Amino acid sequence: MTFKELGLADFLLKAVAKKGYTEPSPIQVKAIPLILERKDVLASAQTGTGKTAGFTLPMLQILARGEQRRKKPVRALIMTPTRELAAQILVNVKEYSEFTDIRSTVVFGGVNANPQIRTLRNGVDILVATPGRLLDLHGQGVFSLNSVEIFVLDEADRMLDMGFARDLNKIMDLLPTRRQNLLFSATFSKEIRKLANKTLHNPVSIEVAPENSTAEMIVQKAFRVDKPKKTELIIKMISEGNWKQVLVFTRTKHGANKLTKKMIAKNISAAAIHGNKSQGARTKALAGFKKGDIRILVATDIAARGLDIPLLPHVINFELPNIPADYVHRIGRTGRAGASGEAISLVSIDEVEYLRDIEKLLGQKMKMEIMEGFEPTETEADIVKKKPNNHRRNPRSGGSSNKRKFHRGSGGGRRS
Question: Which of 198, 209, 220, 324 could form a disulfide with 361 if both were Cys (CB 3.0 to 4.6 A apart)?
């Protein structure tokens, strides 16, 4: 199958060829013809599968053949959960629209709104946005959504995890009733299907991999280690392996900062990205990581969502997520576009139950390894002594239920 056989116009084929792509990915093969036929689409696809091009290319073709107006209203709206993902999607939109007169821009929080306002008032065809800033600027009367023809909801599962349900409802109320809807999600949970039923009209469902599956090219390893020795072990792995580009996940912002400082103290260049970091600091850290100036990027789940890092060889779960699906999202940062990758999890005794939940989700067991010199001594009895209440059920930990997390956040999301 070629891009031309999918029915794409010459100006898009030229842009795709310029990026060096020769064959469409499975999600592109399935999604592009349906979108060109103006179908509503519900798609399950992991990050790194080429889904952005899967909806961007046909969208551009539809808009290019539509009516061209001197004053450009917003004709396509792409909603994303995080700033980094929004910025990356805009880059792709601009690359693929190079040989058209289609204008596009992005709006998200954490930066000065004035340049975004000026661009919107000059008119754009495609708007990429996070919910918070979109609602803020629309509330100021900066732009209208009355002319939207195509509505894309990307990373919908993360949208709900982050508590954007109410914002999404507000945004959809601002859109024309007659529009094409495209919803992309890594998983088809009950909450996602409920959202799809509310958003899509007679959708065609497509999946490019079994639900909640992980990339086949990723080698997954788990090391049992006492919590106090995790930092020493991760530094040993990175130093002795001479790893140059490693994405490390922690559960908390404080944990990310603490680990970053300890790595820097061991002369390992590192930076942290999380919600408390300014957008400028996050952008600078990611740019340094991509260029190789920073070896280690320590991130929380929310900040890392949507990061586009080609050929990332290593992902380390310094702490396991208490929501199993987040494990899939984390390790999906590596093993992308057919490349191999390695995902390592450091598991303390209080996280063994998290690992079991992850194994249940994946439908596979992970062999627990022990590194010489880091033999674990902690037992379940030690955990009970430290924390009488079951850690997994502690509401402050966020719980292990996607449904409970969605319910808690449905009253308004984290502003992006």
Answer: 324
